């Protein structure tokens, strides 16, 4: 099956002859996906993290994620993790 991408041994030749055009659509798609994202710092509120972990029976790292979302007013979280379905703030978006 031809994916439209050059095989590794021909990659350098392909790039020299045609440039990086084969990757332009992929890069545009990445830009679309990540353009609205921001990097935020983790919550350091240990009492909130502990309360969330105990209330929802979450692992500490999952409780940290919930606390961080709440601190930064992040309303939704996209995750495969089913444990987040117990949480209403942030709302789990199934992927």
Low-confidence stretches: none
Structural class: mainly alpha
What is the C-alpha radius of gyration, as a whole number of Å? 21 Å
What is the succession of H and E elements? HHHHEE
Strand order of the largest sheet: 1-2
Mean pLDDT: 84
Q: Could you tell me the strand content as a percent range?
A: 5-15%
Quickly count the helices: 4
Helix content: 40-55%
| Number of E strands | 2
Please tell me what the overall shape is: elongated
Indicate how many domains the architecture comprises: 2
- Give a short account of the largest sheet: 2 strands, parallel
CA-to-CA gap between the ends? 27 Å
Structure summary:
This protein is mainly α and 95 residues long. It has helices at residues 8-18, 21-34, 46-56, 60-71; strands at 76-79, 91-94. The chain is elongated, with a radius of gyration of 21 Å.
């Amino acid at each position: 099956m031809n994916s439209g991408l050059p095989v590794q041994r021909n990659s350098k030749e392909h790039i020299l002859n045609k440039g990086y055009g084969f990757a332009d659509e992929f890069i545009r798609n990445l830009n679309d996906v990540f353009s609205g994202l921001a990097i935020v710092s983790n919550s350091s509120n240990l009492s909130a993290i502990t309360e969330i972990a105990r209330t929802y029976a979450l692992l500490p790292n999952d409780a940290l994620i919930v606390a961080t979302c709440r601190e930064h007013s992040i309303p939704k979280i996209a995750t495969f993790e089913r444990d987040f379905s117990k949480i209403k703030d942030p709302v789990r978006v199934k992927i």
